[in-house]
Design a protein that fits this description.
121 residues, alpha/beta, 4 strands, 28% helix, 2 helices
Length: 121
């Protein structure tokens, strides 16, 4: 079994902060744990996918909650459901989230590198 692309629901009231958090979450969930240089804990473990479907769902949900709390603390996961794609043998998480009241979230912290000015010597 493989981990499919994460789907997000309840994004009807998308604003710029929520869109940026969605991109952060997508990056986190699409990365395999152990592959990110200098932070081997970043990403999701693939170990739950070796277990039967109900166990894999429970383990993966716990992994998503824990990693989100660690790496994207301004986000609060409301619910996690799963869809199983039999054709591709893929487990697809379906996640609903809201932004918390964390005042530390600042749009400028997540600007792309293209927006920064670099000085060349």
């Amino acid at each position: 079994m493989v981990l499919g692309n994460v789907k997000f629901i309840n994004l009807s009231d998308v604003d710029s902060k929520k869109e940026k958090v969605k991109r952060l979450l997508s990056a986190l969930y699409s990365s395999m744990e152990g592959t990110y240089p200098m932070n081997r804990a970043y990403g999701l473990s693939q170990e739950p996918l070796d277990y039967p479907l109900p166990v894999a769902q429970t383990m993966l949900a716990e992994e998503i909650y824990n990693k989100t709390e660690t790496y994207v603390p301004q986000c609060e996961i409301e619910s996690i459901d799963f869809q199983y794609d039999e054709e591709n043998d893929a487990l697809i998480p379906i996640i609903s989230f809201e932004l918390g009241d964390d005042e530390s979230f600042d749009d400028e912290d997540y600007e792309s590198e293209d927006d920064e000015d670099y000085e060349c010597d």
